[in-house]
Design brief:
With 256 residues, this protein is of the alpha/beta class. It has one domain: Alpha/Beta hydrolase fold, catalytic domain (Rossmann fold, 3-Layer(aba) Sandwich). 41% of the residues lie in helices and 14% in strands. It contains ten helices and six strands; from the N terminus they run αβββαβαβαβαααααα. It has a six-stranded mixed sheet with strand order 1-2-4-3-5-6. Helix 1 packs across helix 7. The longest helix has 24 residues. 30% of the residues are buried.
Length: 256
């Protein structure tokens, strides 16, 4: 009987070692044909440095009120292309790419000090710094999906700086917290999962990404090639896959 337990213990030890080692040595091919964020900038693109992160943004209009547009997951300032010009007739409009998306630079784990720029709190602090540097005292925050949760969190923390709050299908609620076990956040943040996690998120560069875009449209027949190209453009940026995984594991549920 002791011999059986020894054999079972050896098998269990071997399995644990495999789980710890194999993911770390699993070959992850580098991304091909990627460039820096600024290589993909457009004539009206602007960049501003906030705590070592180069934030990409665009502006339209002038005066007050000031509208700050916050996009959702997998999106960028491109999402607001139909909105900026009409809104610019009412005041100043600023749309920027949140960390992990668009043409904003993508710091890797260990490259930052202080708050994780990919988490909700990091986004709140970055939005505050952005408004300070751009001379915005108060703003109407317009947040879509995950951008809505950042807008709401900012309004709670800085109510004196929010003139209005527009939440467009915001990602607010406890549903995800109830569906995802608490231990999973520790698991997906391990070095092993960080190594192979980039492979998991690369699926959005293929058919999965196109399907997600179609699911986001009330009328998918209105999606043209320009739309697909606009959402796929950030997938040409260096380390977009690693940054997207960092964003995924940084998301802490906020009781908004």
């Amino acid at each position: 009987m002791k011999r059986v337990w020894k054999i079972l213990g050896a098998i269990l030890l071997f399995a644990i070692l495999m789980l710890l080692i194999v993911p770390l040595i699993y070959p992850v091919p580098p991304l091909k044909d990627t460039v820096s964020e600024k290589d993909l900038a457009e004539p009206d693109s602007r960049f501003i440095d906030i705590n070592g992160v180069a934030i990409h943004y665009k502006e339209a209009g002038k005066g007050e009120p000031v509208f700050v547009l916050l996009h959702g997951f997998g999106a960028s300032e491109f999402s607001w292309r139909e909105v900026m010009q009409p809104l610019s007739g009412q005041g100043r409009v600023i749309a920027y790419d949140r960390p992990g998306f668009g043409l904003t630079s993508r710091p890797m784990s260990g490259d930052w000090t202080g708050t994780n720029p990919y988490g909700v709190q990091g986004n709140v602090e970055m939005l505050d710094d952005l408004m300070n540097q751009l001379g915005v005292e108060k703003a109407v925050l317009v947040g879509n999906s995950a951008g809505g949760s950042v807008a709401a969190a900012y309004a709670i923390e800085h109510p004196d700086r929010v003139q209005g709050l527009v939440l467009v299908d915001p990602a607010i609620g406890n549903g995800n917290r109830e569906r995802i076990p608490s231990w999973s956040s520790l698991f997906i943040a391990t070095p092993q999962m960080r190594h192979i996690g980039q492979l998991l998120v690369r699926s959005i560069a293929g058919k999965t990404g196109d399907e997600t875009i179609r699911l986001a449209w009330h009328d998918p027949s209105r999606i043209d090639q320009q739309v697909y190209d606009g959402y796929r453009k950030p997938l040409k940026v260096n380390n977009w896959d690693k940054a997207l995984y960092e964003f995924t594991i940084a998301q802490n549920s906020e009781d908004l």
